[in-house]
What does this fold into?
Amino acid sequence: MVDIHNTRDTHYRLLDHCIPHIYTFVASTRTLDEITSSVPIFPGSHFVENYMQALSAGSKDVGATVGTMMLNSLIMALGISFGKIFISLLAAFAIVYFKFRFRMFFFWLIFITLMLPVEVRILPTYKVAADLKLLDSYSGLIFPLIASATATFLFRQFFMTVPDELCEAHRIDGGGPIRFFFDILIPMSRTSIAALFVILFIYGWNQYLWPLLITTDEKYYTLLIGIKRMLAAGDTQAEWNIIMASSMLAMVPPVLVVIIMQKQFVKGMTDTEK
Amino acid sequence: MEKRVVFKNKILPYLLLAPQIIITLVFFIWPAAQAIYSSVLQEDAFGLSRVFVGLENFRYIFSDRIYHNSIYVTAIFSFSVAAISMSVALLLAVMADRAIRGATTYKTLIIWPYAVAPVVSAVLWYFLFNPTVGMIAFFLKSLGVDWNYALNGKQAMLLVIISAAWREISYNFLFFLAGLQAIPKSFIEAAAIDGASPAKRFWTISFPLLSPTAFFLIVMNIVYAFFDTFGVIHAITEGGPNEATNIMVYKVYHDGFLGLDLGSSAAQSVILMIIVISLTVFQFRYIERKVHY
It folds into this structure.
């Protein structure tokens, strides 16, 4: 079914698809003059220089270095993914393995979070964060985003498929729920956790609106906010070489996670359907 | 569906649920209730006075020309993002489905942009189309196109649509490819033996069988275009020029956070809430999912 013509066609289309990446890389290896005075096609010789300047000095329009901002983004992404996974595991465990009053009520309460993205409750959520003194802090970047209906449902689905005999045997041996959770359930959920981690890491790393609202101190800027601040350089010429180097750096962690954990990524996408 | 074997403990389940529920109440339910509450109030920006005004805020925004424009812009934007990203993704998926050698490499290259944040994707396209430094802008100018999205609303719209759609191609691609690979090869082979051309095989067999996937993706793409593209607008156009890219989510942020028009912003939030609730209900009610409740 495959002929050479088709394959070559596919190559071209893929190339089209990747042009923004390639060109960004080219620009990130040039000086600002080279970028503004002509259209470079091939990478230049300023790779190390631009990236070092971005990482250690940053752009003159933003008070923080790209190194600091990457660290902030990383803290936020890891905090959100581990936080979401952990509290969702706990919640799913409670819902599946216990009978208690208001069980379904709590279940629906969690479900509602699906329908309330930050985008529809910008101001009041900001006010809550301000009242709780969460502005300009890592807790403020992480906690408001770690409730997760999707993760809770995913783990609930998975726990439902765990054979009852395992739990029965554990109880006959005299084990309690906490031991069962940590010694049996969590190790069994490894693949689901990994799949979810990939999706959530990307979600956390790519957060934009929330950090934009609650960070005013450069010390807590995430990289994406920093890049936007570099763009808004006002009357001066935007430092495209540094912006492009920073954009490359902003792409590297999530893209690496996707490439290294591609199988889990695809599983996570199709499992959570989100 | 219930577990046969359950643990008996009166307090533990509540403790286990506590973190998730506390976060949900404090950062989701309470702010949403606040938004609904302030949507029926008239407040000044300093919080000194509050007057109950009923549905006055809603009446105001629905008679506001700028809000009408915002609804229109949002409709054009989300429809175009869905249409462009889905058609390109389908094309790529059909080709990847046919390719046997190097299929994994193709897949990796195509799904890669999904990991790129909407705002970074916006910066990349912004750079390519930037009138002073961009490669595509140079090219367009050499063709005689008067390219300046900072002044021309239509060009600005085109730019944000491309930036938003590009990343979504990867998402759609994954689902289309999975859908194509789930179609039994015997269907296609039977049609081939009967002498149907590849195009005919695609339109009469593969395409109809993909329709549930396509339907699901339309909803997901609209949700994405509505609620996840704030960064694209904020980074490239900030709603301009002259409101040409002022999508509803951006307008809520702009009116509430920058303009401090609390009542109007809250009313707009409530409208968005209604939209996202309808989309979610629609998605769960009518679209087949693997998750059953």
